[in-house]
Design goal:
OB fold (Dihydrolipoamide Acetyltransferase, E2P); 5-stranded antiparallel sheet; mainly beta; elongated; single chain
C-alpha cells in the first residue's frame, strides 16, 4: 500500500461502516460513503491513500488534485499555528508547513506545490519544488510561454515553472511591477541556457515592445495634461517606478513618438510634451 498514490486494491471484507481493501496481512478502510454501489468481496477498486485526522491510513475514491511526484497549483483555505492548509480535493485539507513555504502565504492565495511524506509518515505540501522541475522544455528563444511564479529572490529575480513543469527565471533586470507567489505569467523566452533552464522576459521583442511603450507614453501624456513628469534625464528608478520600463526602453519610446511627430522636447529640462 503506497501512501499518496492512486492504486487498485481488492475488497477483502465488508462491514457496516465500509469495506476493507488489501489483503489478510495489510488492509485499509474505504468508508461507506465512498464505497461504489454493488461492490463485493474480491472486486478491485481504484483508490487514493492518505491519513485521516487521527493519523490512520484511509482510502478514498475521490480524485485528489495532487499525488506524490506531481506538481499542482492549490488554494490556501486557512492558516494555522503550524502552517497553511490547502484544498486538494479531499475531506482533510493538506498541510503546508511554515518551513516548507518559500514565501509566506495567506488565505485565498494560490501556490505551486508538490507532495511529500514527513518524518511522522504524514502527507504534507512543499513550495520547495525546484528540484522537481524539468530542463528539457520544447521551447526556443522568442517563444511565448505561460507559467506559475513559485519563488522570488530580491537579488536574482523571479522563479517560474513554465507549464508548471519546466524550470525558468525572470532575471531581476526583467522584473517589472510587483509579482507574487502563485501568479500566472505570460512571458517570452529570452534565452535557453546551456543547462536547459529558461530565461524569460515579460516584455516583448524590442520592435513590438517599442510600439506598446510608445502607446503607453502617449496615453499618459493625454492623462497628465500633455506633459510628462519624467524625462530621459530622470533616474532609471524613477522611470521604472512611473512606467514599468527601463530607461533604455523609455528613450526608445520617446524616439518613436518624436519620429512620428506626436511629441516634442521643450525647455531646459527637456520635458516631453504633446505636440500641438
Amino acid at each position: 500500500m503506497r501512501l499518496g498514490e492512486k492504486q487498485v486494491l481488492t475488497v477483502v471484507k465488508t462491514v457496516d461502516f465500509g469495506v476493507y481493501l488489501g489483503s489478510d496481512e495489510e488492509r485499509v478502510l474505504l468508508p461507506k460513503k465512498q464505497v461504489p454501489e454493488g461492490i463485493e468481496a474480491g472486486d478491485p477498486v481504484e483508490v487514493f491513500l492518505y491519513k485521516d485526522s487521527s493519523d490512520r491510513m484511509i482510502a478514498t475514491t475521490r480524485e485528489p488534485k495532487l499525488t506524490l511526484g506531481e506538481l499542482a497549483v492549490l488554494e490556501v483555505v486557512d492558516v494555522g499555528r503550524v502552517g497553511a492548509f490547502l484544498d486538494w480535493g479531499l475531506e482533510k485539507d493538506l498541510l503546508l508547513p511554515y518551513k516548507e513555504q518559500t514565501e509566506k502565504v495567506e488565505k485565498g492565495d494560490r501556490c505551486l506545490v508538490s507532495l511529500y511524506v514527513d518524518k511522522s509518515g504524514r502527507l504534507c505540501a512543499t513550495m520547495k519544488i525546484s528540484s522537481l522541475l524539468r530542463t528539457d522544455s520544447p521551447y526556443k528563444k522568442n517563444d511565448m510561454v505561460r507559467g506559475t511564479v513559485y519563488g522570488i529572490n530580491r537579488e536574482y529575480g523571479v522563479y517560474v515553472a513554465v507549464d508548471n513543469q519546466y524550470s525558468a527565471m525572470i532575471p531581476r533586470r526583467e522584473v517589472y511591477g510587483r509579482m507574487r507567489i502563485g501568479q500566472q505569467v505570460e512571458a517570452r523566452v529570452a534565452a535557453v541556457k546551456a543547462d536547459g533552464k529558461l530565461d524569460l522576459s515579460v516584455r516583448g521583442r524590442i520592435p513590438e515592445q517599442m510600439d506598446k511603450d510608445a502607446e503607453l507614453l502617449l496615453a499618459r501624456l493625454e492623462q497628465c495634461g500633455g506633459r510628462l513628469a519624467v524625462t530621459d534625464k530622470s533616474s532609471p528608478e524613477e522611470i521604472r517606478s512611473e512606467f514599468g520600463m527601463s530607461k533604455a526602453a523609455f528613450k526608445r519610446a520617446v524616439g518613436r513618438l518624436l519620429k512620428q511627430g506626436k511629441i516634442e522636447i521643450s525647455g531646459e529640462q527637456e520635458a516631453v510634451t504633446l505636440r500641438k
